[in-house]
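Ticket opened by: R.M.
Priority: normal
Category: complex prediction / small molecule

The reporter submitted a protein together with (2R)-2,3-dihydroxypropanoic acid and asked that the result be attached to this ticket for the collaborator who will pick it up next week. Submitted input follows.
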Amino acid sequence: VQREMSSLPRVYITRQIPPEGLKILSESGQVQFDLWDSDDVPVPRKELLQKVKGVDALVCVLTEKIDAELLDAAGPNLKVLSTMSVGFDHLSLEELKKRSGIRVGYTPDVLTDSVAELTVALLLTTSRRLIEATHEAKSGGWGTWRTLWLCGYELANSTVGILGLGRIGVAIAERLKPFKVKKFIYTDVAPRPELASLIDAEYVSMDELASQSDFLTVCCALTPETKDICNKDLFSKMKNTSIFINTSRGGVVDQEDLYEALSSGQIAGAGLDVTVPEPLPTSHPLFTLNNCVILPHIASASYSTRNAMSALAANNLLLGLKGQPMIKELKL
Ligand code: DGY
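Result attached by the on-call engineer:
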């Protein structure tokens, strides 16, 4: 779709983003834009490298790697990068920093409720074995009522561990509290007393988090420091009865170690909204396990949240182009 017509700043949008954001850009009268007019397939890299040539600003989603090659292809006009995501592991911050003057917007906060809600849904689906249960019900596996059949683990009286305490971890804990969780614990690079006090969570070491959590939920960003942080070492310290949940980024988990922990009974179950790669090939061994629930990266997927993310990405971009503070700007 070509919506360019004037000498207004040029924007390329790498995806057909939800309507609210497009409306803001169209009605602003401040920019002209061109977009990859599909939501079903990402823009091919070659096309992307062509399309970004000479643009003033770029809206992207998490499927686009924003690296040296792309920034070089865009050239010196590029002033604003606005990603429609809270995660920014697809952006090479080093390369962005090198090209001084490029400002980067992202979309935290507006998705916190949606991600926390989905995390709770995934946790309960995994711990109460809902996928196995519906499968049994419709495939003839439902015989008589049985005393221990499809038993799982409950939140009441449990210890919930949060790996990486931020806005989303707090929002998850707030939602889990009414399920009568006994204790919240967390670990992070350093204690975060202000956030922790909101949910009465205790700071513990990584080892204590592993050994004490009945439910361990990963809420940290993917960085070089957190890559593969959930590995054999962590799983081996967890209880056989504990449930592992990840709605952050697949890269924080060593999937081979997770497969081993799940198939050997080292841990009771895992619920993943994120994997490496995405999509996870249907032949992946994790799909063979009954105690692993895999969702296709949908934590923020509610109509209202995705529209809010799209609107925030558009507003960040317009403010950035005007040289004003963005609503949510990444400090480079
Ligand atoms: C993000 O925003 O980073 C999520 O993974 C998708 O909403």
